[in-house]
Amino acid sequence: TTQLPGGKQLSRPENVSGAYSINGNFNFGLPIKRMQGGNINTTTRFNYDRNVGLLNGRKNYSKNALIGQDLRLNYNFKELVDVGLSGGLNWNSVQYTIQQDRNDNYYTKVFSIDATYSSPKGFILSSDFDYTAYAGRADGFNQAYSMWNASVGQQLFKSKRGEVKLSVYDLLKQNQSITREATENYIEDVQNTVLQRFFLLSFTYKLNRMGGKNMPVQQSSRGREMRMRY
């Protein structure tokens, strides 16, 4: 990138060495002895990206670091009720070697709760609620909103391979899409228009065959991992 008179910029692709990325995740979980059917899980993640570009002929390094921590408590009662509670925090730091006035720190916090009831006769009632809050972004982008979804379903046939389900997404009509992109030369906050409250009627049939023989249907866990926003 080259600065031109009048505040204009000229950008062109050029091969530059010195970029790399490091990331990792650490997961740990254990049962809760005093709560039969309960367990606790924690996830720690980190990511470090160093990108490089040319600014007026000089190398400009951008360093983007992320540290995230999630904690989830899950409880399952006799395969009938499954409840989960989780919370998480992401911390981001962006630094430039030349454009130091653009250095910034920002955060994303998410708190979630979800619950599912599954009756022995195949009736399933499920709901989940997320609260997301942004901090450290540009004016107008430090927003908080809630996302509430719910569904009711009924498994069909003796094998319970079929399921008809009615779902409603974003009951509170607050869904938002806010993202931040940190490039070699600038930081950009973007908010997109997204589909808010809507209903969905669906039918699902599971095909489980191996070697020409019918395989038993696996009942998947209704618990969910927390959805983190960056």
Describe the protein.
This protein is mostly beta strands and 230 residues long. It contains no helices and 15 strands. It has strands at 2-3, 9-10, 20-31, 38-55, 58-77, 81-96, 104-118, 123-135, 144-156, 162-169, 177-182, 187-192, 198-205, 209-210, 213-214. The strands form 4 sheets. It has a 9-stranded antiparallel sheet with strand order 3-4-5-6-7-8-9-10-13, with no helix packed on it. It has a two-stranded antiparallel ribbon with strand order 1-2. A hairpin with a 2-residue loop joins strand 4 and strand 5 (58-77).
Q: Summary?
A:
With 230 residues, the chain is mainly β. The protein has strands at residues 2-3, 9-10, 20-31, 38-55, 58-77, 81-96, 104-118, 123-135, 144-156, 162-169, 177-182, 187-192, 198-205, 209-210, 213-214. The two termini are 27 Å apart.
